[in-house]
Automatic annotation (TrEMBL):
Functional note: Poorly processive, error-prone DNA polymerase involved in untargeted mutagenesis. Copies undamaged DNA at stalled replication forks, which arise in vivo from mismatched or misaligned primer ends. These misaligned primers can be extended by PolIV. Exhibits no 3'-5' exonuclease (proofreading) activity. May be involved in translesional synthesis, in conjunction with the beta clamp from PolIII.
CDD domains: PolY_Pol_IV_kappa
Subcellular location: Cytoplasm
InterPro entries in the cross-refs: DNA/RNA_pol_sf, DNA_pol_Y-fam_lit_finger_sf, DNA_pol_Y-fam_little_finger, DNA_polymerase-Y, DNApol_IV, PolY_HhH_motif, Rev_trsase/Diguanyl_cyclase, UmuC
Protein name, UniProt field: DNA polymerase IV
Residues of the site described as Substrate discrimination: Y15
EC number, UniProt record: 2.7.7.7
Length: 358
């Protein structure tokens, strides 16, 4: 079977972790972000506070009773947004198919990705590492072939979690999952399910579509699918396409000019196909990326006016950017070809991704 490769990244106790990051005196202590007045509400709680049962959306007065040493700090949303943008920049290094859900979580479709890595798990590990190196914050990641499973997986081993649900494991995993842990089943609905004898995915799967629809309305179809590990929702990017590209890493370095030009021709045609599928018309700048055997990297670009919208011109410009002087005794291990500088104001549609073996 062919499957998509979906990653769900969820920052661990994001607001509270930012406050502990910026104020070393708060580290290792129970922290709640939010007002401490009688009518205040906890926006986020550190893991130290969660040990006392403090959690988001809890009244501040109740949180203070449950954790007498709880430290309240006022939220600083500009700071959270600043770090959120840095985190998203990491995501876009791997794919343009990024669907942010909030400041601290997002879905990524890495079925095809910018670094040509087949393993979604390795990509998730790299993303977690880069987030830690660049921001000092910890993220958890869930990896699977659909959004429901990826979201569920990211919550399994927090904090600093990395959980993979493989296609062959999915049905058994969901069968054992308590309904309270199903993403999309709220607390009230979960309580009703338990009272009706539906404790796990296995119990839920015994119910017919008609039964679930009668009980839960339109949500019944969703529940019917997810207890069978089915979720057809695609990752919906909300960022304008800035560039469209394709690249290939070679098993053996290439050294001859004719071989390089042949590969540029092939990669450029793949890149052009993606460009047309993306609807990001009126690109003006073609760029080739060359990575040598010693990992040094160069780029060469050409901007054309009018815009480049036919394959022949696209490929010819890409090939013209590489000359014999760019050959290197270390050989070439990677070639990339892309187009950017889109001057059309219309918002492009998401790129349709190919499915690959998971």
């Amino acid at each position: 079977m062919n499957h998509r490769k979906i990653i769900h990244i969820d920052m661990d106790a994001f607001y509270a972790s930012v406050e502990q990051l910026d104020n070393p005196e708060l580290r290792g202590k129970p922290v709640a972000v939010g007002g401490n007045s009688q009518r205040g509400v906890v926006a986020a709680a550190s893991y130290e506070a969660r040990k006392f049962g403090v959690k988001s959306a809890m009244p501040s007065a109740k949180a203070a009773k449950q954790c007498p040493n709880l430290i309240f700090v006022q939220p600083r949303f500009p700071r959270y947004k600043e770090l959120s943008h840095q985190i998203r920049d990491v995501f876009y290094e791997y794919t343009d198919l990024v669907e942010p859900l909030s400041l601290d979580e997002a879905y990524l479709d890495v079925t095809e990705n910018k670094i040509g890595l087949n393993s979604a798990t390795l990509i998730a590990k790299e993303i977690k590492t880069k987030i830690k190196e660049r921001t000092g914050l910890i993220a958890s990641a869930g990896i699977s072939y659909n959004k429901f499973l990826a979201k569920t997986a990211s919550d399994m081993d927090k904090p600093d979690g990395l959980c993979v649900i493989l296609p062959e494991e999915a049905e058994a995993f969901v069968a054992k999952l308590p309904v309270q842990r199903f993403h999309g089943i709220g607390k009230v609905t979960a309580e009703k399910m338990v009272k009706a004898g539906m404790f796990t995915g296995k119990d839920l799967r015994k119910k017919s579509l008609e039964d679930l629809t009668l009980r839960y309305g339109k949500s019944g179809q969703y529940y019917y699918n997810i207890c069978r590990a089915i979720d057809h929702r695609v990752v919906q990017p909300t960022r304008d396409t800035k560039s469209v590209s394709a690249e290939r890493t070679f098993e053996d370095n290439i050294y001859e000019l004719d071989d390089v030009i042949e590969e540029i021709d092939r990669i450029a045609r793949i890149s052009f196909e993606r460009y047309k599928r993306s609807k990001a018309e009126d690109g003006h700048t073609i760029t080739i990326k060359i990575k040598y055997g010693d990992f040094q990297q160069i780029t060469r670009s050409k901007t054309d006016d009018p815009s480049i919208n036919d394959e022949g011109t696209y490929v010819q410009i890409a090939k013209s950017l590489f000359t014999e002087q760019l050959l290197n005794e270390k050989g070439i291990r990677l070639i990339g070809v892309g187009i950017s500088n889109f001057r059309k104001d219309e918002e492009p549609e998401p790129v349709t991704q190919l499915t690959l073996e998971f």
